[in-house]
Amino acid sequence: MAESPDGGALTGAAVLSHRPTLIADPIMMTYIEAREALVKHLLHDASAHDAERFDEIGRRFDSLENLFPRGRDASLMKLHVAMTFWDGWIDARNNGWPKHVIGKDEWPVLARAVAADLVADREITDPKVRRQFDAVAHPSLGDRVQVLTARLRDR
Prior knowledge:
The chain is mainly alpha-helical. It has one domain (about 25-155). About 55% of the residues lie in helices and about 0% in strands. It has helices spanning about 10-20, 30-50, 60-65, 75-95, 105-120, 125-135, 145-155. It is globular and about 35 Å long.
């Protein structure tokens, strides 16, 4: 039986109020859950982009990233490329759609292509997406891509 600080017995309610509160880490998604969530969010954001509801792009990114499967397993690489693509899309939106490599109107088209690859459970096939967002195949990619890729692998 638990004791109070003065040595007396505690009642059930008192015992509960003196236990430390534990905050559990969120549970990591499975590969399939992450793949399905990415497809859903990419397609939603592509539709939002087409309708010029740009503020909707990436609304679920942070919550998905927090539960995203981590590691260096080869099966996760396509998911990492897709997440990094999505992050780049959000960044482009946040920075006024810079015209350096991917134009404003290309993002939803590319998002649908990435989603189609994920649905088929194949590697991301679009060369532009791979060139810009596959940090494993192109280790010289910018800091933003490298940081997110490292976070997805090593968390």
